[in-house]
Amino acid sequence: MARLPRLTLAGHAHWLQQHGLSGRPIFQDDTDRDAYLAALREAVAGTGVRLHAFALCDDAVHLVVTPAGADGPSRLMQALGRRYVSAHHRRHGGRGTLWDGRFRCAVVEAGAPLLAVLTLVDGLAPAPGHSSADHRCGRPERRVPLLDPPEVWTLGNTPFERESAWRRRLEEGLPAAQGQALLDAARGGWAIGSPAFTQALAEAAARPTQPRPRGRPARTPRPA
Q1: What distance lies between CA 41 and its chain's CA centroid?
Q2: Whole-angstrom distance, CA of residue 32 vs CA of residue 88
Q3: Dist. CA 97–CA 76, nearest whole Å
Q4: Domain of 62?
Q5: What's the CATH code of the domain at 21?
Q6: Which of 68, 74, 69 is nearest to 50 (CA)?
Q7: Count of structural domains within the chain
Q8: pTM given for the model
Q9: Three-state secondary structure readout of 6-39
Q10: Interval 99-137: pLDDT, tens
Q11: Which residues have C-beta within 8 Å of that of residue 22, sequence separation ≥ 6?
């Protein structure tokens, strides 16, 4: 089956994923992570996207961004790749790509779906300091310019209330089935949101925004 074009939409949040080639680590230590965040800071400034969340896992990167233009996610990831991959090879040796194919991208509906994605991404990193959780939990993240979407501001009237609410969200986490469904949607390049949102996006993009049901479609009975 032909590969679907990547789904992007200006002014909407996008969850971007990039995985290491054959599951290999892309970060050996915190020096690598600092180099990636320096590249991310420069790429965000150069492409005009708004960065809402990040998680630096050993073998994958997760970013939540809102681009001003539909090409924003691609421009961001290209700029990141050019700078970080070359820095990684200079430090560790090696050549060629670090990535397992092209990056994955899912458009996320505002409201509860975006809050769920932010909660999941903030909780993905294996250690403190490796995600944007610090930013929302009262430990300011100054290495990259993070901007909370309006949904986060609804969690409390003061910074203390919002930070406490976010810590509770991370402690509780998402139900396992919901978290897995979100990860599958992001890896598949599908839209994340309500049926009305995904249907409207499918009509605007002229491509599927949800996986098709498995199996053959039911036959329509022939008229007698």
Answers
A1: 16
A2: 7
A3: 17
A4: 13-200
A5: 3.30.70.1290
A6: 68
A7: 1
A8: 0.90
A9: CCCCCCCEEEEEEEEHHHCCCCCCHHHHHHHHHH
A10: 998 899 999 999 999 999 999 999 998 888 899 999 999
A11: 100
